[in-house]
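Lesson 9: reading folded outputs for more than one chain in a single document. The general rule is that every protein is listed as its sequence immediately followed by its structure tokens, and records are never interleaved. Here is the first one.
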Amino acid sequence: MNVFRTLPRDALASVVVFLVALPLCMGIAIASGMPPAKGLITGIIGGLVVGFIAGAPLQVSGPAAGLAVLVFELVRTHGMAALGPVLLLAGLIQLVAGSLRLGSWFRVTAPAVVYGMLAGIGILIVLSQVHVMIDAAPKASGLDNLLAFPGAVRDALSLLGSNAMIAGAVGLGTIASIWLWERFRPAPLRFLPGALVGVTLATLTILWLALPVKRVELPANLGDAIDWITPQGLASLADPQLLIAALALAFIASAETLLSAAAVDRMHDGPRARFNRELSAQGIGNMLCGAVGALPMTGVIVRSSANVQAGARGRASTILHGAWLLALVALLPVVLQSIPVASLGAVLVYTGCKLVDPKAMRNLGQYGRAPVFIYIATALCIVFTDLLTGVLVGFGLTLLKLVWSASRLRAKLVPTGPNSAELRMSGAATFLRVPQLAKLLASVEPGTRLHLSLARVSYIDHACMELLEDWGRSARAQGGGLEIVEGAALKRRVEGRQRTALA
């Protein structure tokens, strides 16, 4: 009954989501080095299948810009045929992880790494799609795209009225249209996404002026775009590189999905996301996409936020948006075949620029310089190496920061009277700080009665305990000693077993 009560609002919201998803599905496919139809198939599966079983009912699934870089590199290195098996295995990993209730663990990702990953992906998308905007083919890496861009622009401008120059003008016009619409759109038409307005205007312009630019190529029958997985394809998973690619794809897709689901939960007061079920649903969707040779999918924050803002109340909006995509591709493919490729590249350039969010760096800066450094290092490593390496570097730096923070110890010796002093410690007393502590204890005069306060000590490990015990025994032999000011604190903070006093 609830479904029928919310159906009118969900139906209207589904149209908005469909309009947002349409150009993105094709644009992300092109950015991934795949035919546009592959992105549309993923969007359809994300709506009709994943939308029906999802644990986050208001989240919309489909091809994501965050995976475009990974897919592009995979297709370039191993060929388009390798994507299906890799995606099938990645989906299986997600399904198993959801069944084992590991959904929450996929969310254990430092914000600096997440924002850095998105920024790096955004930079790579911009560097590759500016070539698409002038009807040129993108290069293999971000650095190559950066180095080749000045030459590509020079070639495009060398011949006035060339096809490349015209395509560039169409792309720039698309970006300008999106920006102007997002900034000045009238309230009655606020449901129309800027990407759709920009692509529509670009399409009408090239049709009216009969401009010689590349257009979207779609098969007459959507079934012709399906590449069923083969036993030979499954056998290719014996390649360790493909196994690593599957693991990377599963992890990044899961992290993006669950972070998006958490963000969507903060946008509405409706049903909360069930993360383990959502992870399993994404796994099933990616296995289906792998079986038909489509693009990988994730939960996408852009489409999901559009869904919530359009007034969706249940999963019907997500399901219906997939139905609209299927109907358009099946009944009106000629409409999609009129869209200029340069305008889709422009949509991705605009999206990539938004992924490099300056606000994220400012917010991270509130927590110190280390998160900002991790953000920048992650983004630059992604640009100059690859996505997986950049993410691993980000995780590594985060762990190093954690180790440094967890092992930080401040120790100070304060004289309190004749043959009496206080050892003030704060932080974590670990084996890494044994040299520091030993040097401080060595400076205590023989015969001194040393008082140790543990009120501000969060942790003491075995190495530091042995050092203190040994010094205490030595001090007693010389007429001094060591006294614990807070004996109860030692019970709570010492590593392993409880201890009430120093032997």
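And here is the second record, again sequence then tokens.
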Amino acid sequence: MSTIRQQDLIDSIADSLQFISYYHPKDYIQALGKAYEREESLAAKDAIAQILTNSRMCAEGHRPICQDTGIVTCFVRVGMNVRWDDASMSVTDMINEGVRRAYNNPDNKLRASILSDPAGARKNTKDNTPAVIHYEIVPGDTIEVDIAAKGGGSENKTKFVMLNPSDSIVDWVIKTVPQMGAGWCPPGMLGIGIGGTAEKAMVMAKEALMEEIDIQELIARGAQNRAEELRIELYEKVNALGIGAQGLGGLTTVLDVKIKDCPTHAASLPVAMIPNCAATRHVHFILDGSGPAQLEAPRLEDWPAVTWTPSAQARRVDLNSVTREDVASWKPGETLLLNGKLLTGRDAAHKRMTDMLNQGEALPVDFTNRFIYYVGPVDPVRDEVVGPAGPTTATRMDKFTRQMLADTGLLGMVGKSERGPIAISAIKDHKAVYLMAVGGAAYLVSKAIKASRVVAFADLGMEAIYEFDVVDMPVTVAVDSGGTSVHETGPKEWQARIGKIPVVQG
């Protein structure tokens, strides 16, 4: 029998969420470092260097790895002998109080991104509550917690299928992963749940992502059951797709594939797949009545000796004077360093702007020959100009792109990962350009922002339109003015180079 103090659980949840906002798990850091050493694609290697540099900077500065500080997911195993002598709250309320305190910590305020009334008003809860909590009542005297913060970029790429019992799980995964695009910010992990029912498969896929990266050890000792055989096969075949870091084409797309399974109905084969992004954030702790969780931080020497610096070949661009003729000279895959004034705007701002245009109203900001950055930054603390400000998934803005290019004079866009066909077509027709910043490098990117002010739609909070003054902000030409996309050409090139999976044309 053990007695768990209410405050100990609240403090442990709050401390854990602060901890994972700025510390990658040690196993992820080391696996990514080895991937960096192996990587032969220059674009992918540069992206991994940015992710590793950002990771170390966040550990030193205690600021978020990613601007999307995620939705909180908890797996809680409560021992049947646990007592709560001083509890005035339910366990769920304790966990949510811990979330509330973590996200409103003034020294490292995290971005609130949870919306209530999801199919209606979509009103921000302001403190990232409620968490999504899964309970299990187990024998014992302890409370065991796995806690994660999952960003929308990876969560939104979740896939589920109800296969026939005779269907191939491997075939489905290999067909599906390329359809996910790169908005989930590879290199990361895949969590796969097999069996049970539809909702059980999803929960298992999520829980599998909490496990330690150990695929190389598994390959070395050999598989001992079918699930381990699947892990190895999927790890090798997913990487053979050549998607690479940030979808730029390369040798490493996943650092591990995790599988949990469960008995299922004879007529069913439910399979769920959830990716973890480059901002992998989770931690495990146990409470036994002796006080709050003691979390062991990685040491700085645990990070590989990788420090990103701009390539000598990178082209510096003055955003204040750039012309359409300049843009036409930029090549797919080229590295640019942006300088000058950069506007921002995400989903809500785009929706409001297109509504205004459709009603014949003038926009509050002139976009003529300007660039827009798809970002919702973290609030600044202390002497910061802006908090971590990495790009958001650009495909969400695809449906607005043609109108923005046609009606505002917009010259280019900056975002995360690929653009879809409707956006690429609009970019080509208007001789515009799309530039990609590295997802998973939010703090590094924010250091290029030297001034920030809200210029429109202040009521939208982090979705407002800001104007940034940037100095040497690193980006890659992802879609050039002729409509060539590196997210289409890069993976095909590297899939062909790897040569284990036939390249499908078209």
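What the second record shows: The longest strand covers residues 465-479.
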